[in-house]
Amino acid sequence: MLEHPVTLAIARGETSLGIELGSTRIKAVLIDHHCATLASSSYEWENQLIDGYWTYSIPDMIHGLQATYRQLKQEVERNYNVTLQTIGSIGCSAMMQGYIALDQAGELLVPFRTWRNATTGRAASGLTEQFSFKIPQRWSIAHLYQAILDEEEHVTGIDYMTTLSGYVHFLLTGSRAIGIGDASGMFPIDEAAQQYNEDMVKQFTGLAAVKRYPWKLTDILPTVYTAGEQAGSLSEAGALLLDPSGSLQPGIPLCPPEGDAGTGMVATNSVSKRTGNLSVGTSVFAMFVLEKDLTKVYPEIDIVTTPDGSPVAMVLANNCSSDINAWLGLFREFHEAMGLKPDMNQLFSVLFNQALEADADGGGLLSYGYYSGENITGFAQGRPLFVRSPQSRFTLPNFMRVHLFSAFAALRLGMDMLTQQEQVTIERISAHGGLFKTPRVGQQLCAAALNTPVSVLSTAGEGGAWGMAILASYMLHKEPQESLADYLTAKVFQDARGQEVAPVSADVEGFALYMERYTEGLAIERAAVEHLVENGKKN
Questions:
Q1: What digits encode the pLDDT tens for the residues 398-414?
Q2: Residue 395 exposure: Cα atoms within 13 Å on the Cβ side
Q3: Domains, the chain, ranges and CATH?
């Protein structure tokens, strides 16, 4: 039964597996050596706000990993009649940065603190001033320093600090490794050395509040690897964690773990200079590979790296699609209350297309999808908010357009720093994410919001897990001295097709009017945060 070429390839382990723990789904993608998808699976999970911190349950994470792998294994058996026992290479990815602190036994000292937390303002601003380098609130070093400033008891016991991708990699291999892209969101990277910035490490170590702890920063941080290197092998314990049935064999090489920003760059072929990508989900971020350093530090712009170590300017807004999804859920409930069984794909398509029939500026409506704090506009907490005046044109098309505009509004504020003040040249922006599944609508309004053409590749729906699988495949199949950019262009995207949508002038003008309303209305959002009681407690 192994005559089929794909079946033979799977049986021989001529495959690569990418696993990504996103903000709403854990996803796995198995590819062949041509980077074509053979099987995929996913598991839905949700973050929780517990004791003031956004977090995910580690038992739920492990259950989700196992469920995702089990579904993938079943799909392989169903479609190719072979049991998945070995894989050529594996790569783990996860939502970027955050804070995982482990003791000597490898146990969590505090619950995982995700990128979504806006609780490290004092630490982030202090380190930014100390380093003359932007340290965002979500970065691991900001979380660590804030815990130090707050004199949290767990800090003394830290033996290892990592990100979620690094933690999953650690569970599967026992290796304290991190890909340079994810590492660049733990601590600043020296581009020339392709390692943590040594001068800044010394500056941090010299801080009075840090000196009293028994560990050294370089001892608790993971080792940095670049794309193409091997960063460990699947251990016996790791194989059983992923596949409790015992079918999966240990010894499989793993590439460096990466964040979802890095896998997004790979999945959109955006690792070369002058290219950019846009990733849309619970958060939205745009990344542009730089030709030269920025002239100054911007609060709205983070400096990270590609998976192969090139500097990247990153603009990230914490909130994007959550509020849209909540409203679509309300429309679904209405359907069900009417005794109808809604098709969610059709529901999204119909409602999104309504936005194209709207007034250019959204008819005077206003929305803030702030489920959490928003770093770009300076909010430590958020309140989802929809506002209109008696003169607003409250129609379904305007309602939908405004919520799509709002998804990109905070991002636009950060983008203006790059394009207007730094004159960064962007040859193309490739976008991916669920918001673009409905043809053209999200793409057209995104192009208007950014005032630049936006391309969506035919492979955009494959997502970050596919990008992670490509990085695992690159480790195995690259030619000597073949760069990641060359590998992607020649071997992954050589036949990829995309659709580019240019901004429509009326939409651009309408978005400009909406942005005036959005910036003026931030005071309304601030009042909501201050006065809208949550969990019986006033902020």
A1: 999 999 999 999 999 98
A2: 15
A3: 260-318+414-501 (3.30.420.40), 322-412+504-531 (no CATH)
